[in-house]
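### Sample
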Amino acid sequence: MEYSHSDEELIRQPIGYWSWAAAKAVVSRTRGALAGLGLSQPQWWVLARVAASAGEGRTRGEVTEVLRGYLDVGDRSLGEEIDEAVVRGWLVEDAAGRLRLTAEGEELYAGAARLQDELWAERHAGISDEEYLVTMKALQRFIHNTGGRAWHH
């Protein structure tokens, strides 16, 4: 890969721009790929949280609590994304308010999980685990140094 600047120039480049550009590229690619399955990224997050419950289901509050710190959900709230997943038959909500995947939801989740694995490999092409770890720690330090807060489950 050819880099946009020499090392001497890159060391002076603004982290704000490059972290924004990276986030925009990754999120755009992910959302576009998921849209090919008829799924929004926030709906993927919801399905993944419910799938992680090992069949016990999750309440809307439990799902929202975990996801509230995630990236921008777009024009709709997480509640609307959950509602859409129920309407589309991917989730069912029982009398106790617990969300569970339907058979259709399990199939969609499995396909989306395979897609996420493919996207992970695509993003990480040519990047060693050591480079990735250094990058993640540096980004977390930038967040800490600027008084920001971030968390991802």
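The mean pLDDT is 90. This sample (Winged helix-turn-helix transcriptional regulator) is used throughout the tutorial notebook.
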